[in-house]
Write a structure and sequence with these properties.
This protein has 156 residues and is of the alpha+beta class. It is 39% helix and 22% strand. The strands form 2 sheets. A 3-stranded antiparallel β-sheet has the order 1-2-3, with helices on one face. A 3-stranded mixed β-sheet has the order 4-6-5. The model has no long low-confidence stretch (mean pLDDT 85).
Length: 156
């Protein structure tokens, strides 16, 4: 595992006995995630967008719920909209991490940007660890098998 910083993302190389991969974390605002993806795709010469997994928060899922899906709508998620604009399709794979809904719809932006403390922070840290396990599962057993396990609630 090695890491280096780029202008729009932090990039790490990861490898196991099964395969190797790049992990990129945008350093842009969420709404501009596509700006971080474009140079990554150019650098790696990835032409098959199915080889990319986007990990994102999901208001429509309760905290603790993970789901892997390919394609579908953007559900008003501006980060996904930015990515779809760069890749020219919505048919990319997503790992959705449930964060729950705010008490009032108009509070969505404040809800996703608030700094978590105490039990809420601990819960999110566990969800992020489970999401990392899900990504590793995708790499180890493939998308279809990982999707079945993760979507059924099995954490590897």
């Amino acid at each position: 595992f090695s890491s280096r910083r780029r202008h729009t993302r932090c990039l790490s190389d990861w490898s196991s006995d099964v395969c190797s991969s790049d992990l990129a974390v945008p350093t842009t605002y969420m709404n501009e995630s596509g700006a971080a993806l474009r140079p990554l795709l150019q650098r790696t010469s990835i032409t098959d967008i199915s080889r990319v997994v986007i990990v994102h928060d999901e208001l429509d899922f309760a905290p603790g719920r993970l789901q892997i899906k390919t394609g579908g709508g953007l559900a008003g998620h501006n980060g996904l909209r930015s990515i779809a604009g760069v890749v020219g399709t919505q048919d990319f794979t997503r790992l959705r991490i449930g964060i729950g809904k705010p008490p009032h719809k108009e509070q969505g932006a404040d809800f996703v940007l608030k700094r978590l403390t105490g039990p809420a922070r601990t819960a999110v840290e566990l969800d992020v660890a489970a999401a990392a396990d899900a990504i590793e599962l995708i790499l180890d057993v493939g998308l279809a098998a990982a999707q079945q396990q993760v979507n059924a609630g099995m954490r590897g």
